[in-house]
Design brief:
279 residues, alpha/beta, 7-stranded mixed beta sheet, 3-stranded antiparallel beta sheet, 7 helices, binds S-adenosylmethionine
Length: 279
């Protein structure tokens, strides 16, 4: 899932990070910063969240929506699936156990190394793990039946419209593209899990990304914001149909927080949006 988004109390920061700002950041700086951050954080991230995600499990969001119950991708057996921003490939592995052929793609070599470690541990693995940027997919047109991303590349790129176009290009007609991101409304709030995170402080309409940077102004972590309408427009402009936007409610029996996603906030403000699209 995302780690910071609108935080002023950032958690794991790349050494040298001294500032949090909102400023425009282009594609190259964004990808470079996030690759370095995820390479730096991969092992700790998996140590902290791995048991919640499960080595073989498809969890869409901190609210715990499980693809085994939600079925947002539809039937997966026999389908060729691309997981964008796969991290340690927990979702890819679950899809393999359901009969899919899966390619996991991620920009971070350290996250892919975590994926290979879990492959060894579980004996279940994707057919390929590919290091690449979600906005430039190294695949032939119409080479996948389905694509998915659980908080994968979409929040971490400057040009998410390009990700939509790229996914639309590699999907076969009729194929689904389902991706989860931080719910856009969360960008109005500080990333605090407690009551201070319930006070709207930032304009929803401020599209400048959340940026951690060093003293030289070099980005060390970047998350990009889109409003709900922006996301819909990017999906439609890519030639995809939007079937649903799932806004998971916080389950009554779920008491585990994930950074800013806490039971307190989750019962009041949606924390995740899952977009279900079709080519
Ligand atoms: C929050 S994790 C999501 C993975 C997994 N679903 C999970 O919940 O742990 C975000 C992943 O997106 C990857 N990522 C960030 N920027 C990316 C980009 N431009 N292209 C592809 N993957 C990217 C990161 O390396 C990281 O593994």
């Amino acid at each position: 899932m995302g780690e910071h988004s609108t935080s002023s109390a950032y958690q794991a920061s790349l050494p040298g990070t001294t500032q949090v700002v909102r400023r425009p950041v282009g594609s190259a700086e964004t990808v470079g910063a996030n690759r370095r951050w995820w390479d730096f954080a991969a092992a700790d991230y998996q140590a902290e969240h791995g048991d919640f995600l499960r080595d073989v499990g498809f969890i869409w969001c901190p609210e715990g929506v499980d693809e085994a119950d939600a079925g947002l991708l539809g039937p997966v057996a026999g389908r060729r699936v691309l997981e964008v921003g796969c991290g340690a490939a927990q979702c890819a592995r679950w899809l393999v156990t359901r009969g899919a052929e899966v390619v996991g793609l991620d920009v971070s070599q350290a996250q892919l190394a975590e994926a290979r470690r879990l492959d060894e541990r579980t004996g279940v693995k994707a057919s390929a793990l590919v290091a690449a940027d979600a906005a430039a997919l190294p695949f032939a047109p119409e080479s996948f039946d389905l694509a998915c991303s659980a908080f994968g590349g979409v929040p971490f790129v400057a040009d998410s419209a390009a990700v939509m176009r790229e996914v639309a290009r590699v999907l076969r007609p009729g194929g689904r593209w389902v991706f989860s991101v931080t719910h856009p409304i969360r960008w109005c709030f500080t990333d605090a899990p407690g009551p201070e995170g319930l006070v709207a402080r930032q304009p929803y309409f401020d599209r400048r990304p959340y940026v951690e940077q060093d003293d030289g102004g070099r980005a060390t972590y970047v998350e990009h914001h889109r409003t709900l309408g922006d996301r819909v427009r990017e999906i439609v402009a890519a030639g995809l149909s939007l079937l649903d936007i799932v806004e998971p409610e916080w389950p009554a029996d779920h008491d585990r927080a994930w950074g800013q996603w806490s039971p307190l906030r989750g019962r009041i403000i949606p924390g995740t949006a899952i977009f279900v699209c079709e080519k």
